[in-house]
Amino acid sequence: MNQDKEHVRLLAIFHYVVGGVAALFSFFPLLYITIGAVFIFAARHGTAKPGQDLPPEFLGWIFAVLGSLLFLLGIAMSICILIAGRSLALRKRYSFALVMACIECLFVPFGTILGVFTIVVLSRESVKAMFSTA
């Protein structure tokens, strides 16, 4: 039982770390938004060199919308990972933590490792009992 508490505590800490790393990496799509804004600005206000065309404005919008969606998805995912870590620390929301562990398996390599270990630990009957009594 004491070993299970230690495993759940370590999993909570690792969820915090992976959630922070995921939040950091979710800022990279902001580069797409910047590129899209540059394309939109160039299409509206730029002057083309002789024999060259300006980039089409819709291409800038594609970059901007795609970057925005990826940014929002990354932030939402990192928030969910942090909530799963908090759930593990408080030993509440067992189902949410288990579902997030399954989803984390999609994010190679750290999410996969953390997700598999979380599923293994949460599958133990003694850990399930810890969550039901909390």
Q: How is this structure best summarized?
A:
By secondary structure, this protein is mainly α.
Structural description of this entry:
The protein is an all-alpha fold. It is built from 6 helices and no strands. It has helices spanning 2-25, 30-45, 57-90, 94-104, 110-122, 125-133. It is rod-shaped. The protein starts with a helix and ends with a helix. The model has no long low-confidence stretch (mean pLDDT 93).
Properties at a glance:
134 residues; mainly alpha; 0% strand
What is the element layout, followed by pairings?
Layout (H helix, E strand, L loop, with lengths): L1 H24 L4 H16 L11 H34 L3 H11 L5 H13 L2 H9 L1
Q: Spell out the helices and strands N to C.
A: HHHHHH
Strand proportion, as a percent range, falls in under 5%
What is the helical fraction, as a range of percent? over 70%
Radius of gyration: 21 Å
Which residues sit in consecutive blocks of at least 5 with pLDDT less than 50? none
Largest sheet: none
Number of helices: 6
Described by the principal axes of the CA atoms, the overall outline is rod-shaped
Structural class: mainly alpha
Instruction: Report the mean per-residue pLDDT as an integer.
Output: 93
Count of beta strands: 0
Distance between the termini: 14 Å
